[in-house]
Amino acid sequence: MGQMEAKGYRKKPVYECVKRLFDLVFSLVAVVALSPTLLVVSLAVIAEDGFPVLYRASRVGRWGKPITVLKFRSMRRSADDLEAMLTPEELEEYRINFKLEKDPRITRVGDFLRKTSLDELPQLFNIIAGSLSLVGPRPVLQEETELYGEDRALLLSCKPGLTGLWQARGRSNVTYKDGARQALELKYVRERSALLDLKILFWTVGAVLRMDGAR
To answer: Which of 31, 35, 104, 105 could form a disulfide with 75 if both were Cys (CB 3.0 to 4.6 A apart)?
Structure first.
């Protein structure tokens, strides 16, 4: 997928250069500052459900490039066996929204990590490596990109983010079903700017502290 295929895509070279520098500096400082937290969380995951500590999720990155997103493992080791772990009703819900309101696969430690968003801290390493940004559309599965229809290429024209407009303004309370999530993600891609990124980071802190839509 190339840039010319994304209808409505606008190049912003200065903004993207500054954004990459900010991503890199912020993430390096955060990893050092949060290293004790990273260690404690790792030990908690191991204590409840053993290894591995990290879950490596296959997602779609910028311009459709496959990427691997890191998270602290919040589900049981057999969680990928959907047929065995979920009821037919839960499977149907998952196929619509790609997540569950009450997911039986989540561990006790994982539930806490999700509610506090601590499970996503390893994505700081993704940001340092360059596959993610601090702010952008949420990294999604291939099947999820199809829900954007003719705007799929526009969604993928932007590097995915650790947080974004959807994360800060609803998270699990805003779903694909009525198109609200798609609208928020595409709004960010079209209107992205340094000021909007700063607003989203500020909103995200508030959303995490309130645990808004956290699952």
So the answer is: 105
Q: Sort 46 into a burial class: Cβ within 10 Å, 0-12 / 13-18 / 19+.
A: middle
Asked if the model's pLDDT at residue 8 lies above 90, the reply is no
Q: SS3 for 169?
A: coil
Q: Which residues contact 35 (CB under 8 A, 6 or more apart)?
A: none
Of residues 98 and 195, more confidently modeled? 195
Count of alpha carbons within 13 angstroms of residue 192, beta-carbon side:
29
Note the pLDDT tens digit of each residue in 58-83: 999 999 999 999 999 998 887 666 76
Residue (of 103, 37, 107) closest to 73 by Cα position: 107
Q: Report the alpha-carbon distance of residue 133 to residue 26 in Å, rounded.
A: 11
Cα-based distances in Å from 131 to 60, 108, 139, 162: 10, 30, 10, 10
3-state secondary structure of 76: coil
| CB 186, CB 155: distance < 8 Å | yes
Question: In which region does residue 39 sit, left (phi positive, over 0), alpha (psi from -120 to 50) or beta (all else)?
Answer: alpha
- 122: tokens are 């390893």
- Residue 149 CA, chain-centre distance (Å), reads 20
How far, in Å, CA of 174 to CA of 181, rounded? 6
The angle formed by the CA atoms of residues 48, 167 and 174, to the nearest 5 degrees, is 100
pTM of the entire predicted model: 0.86
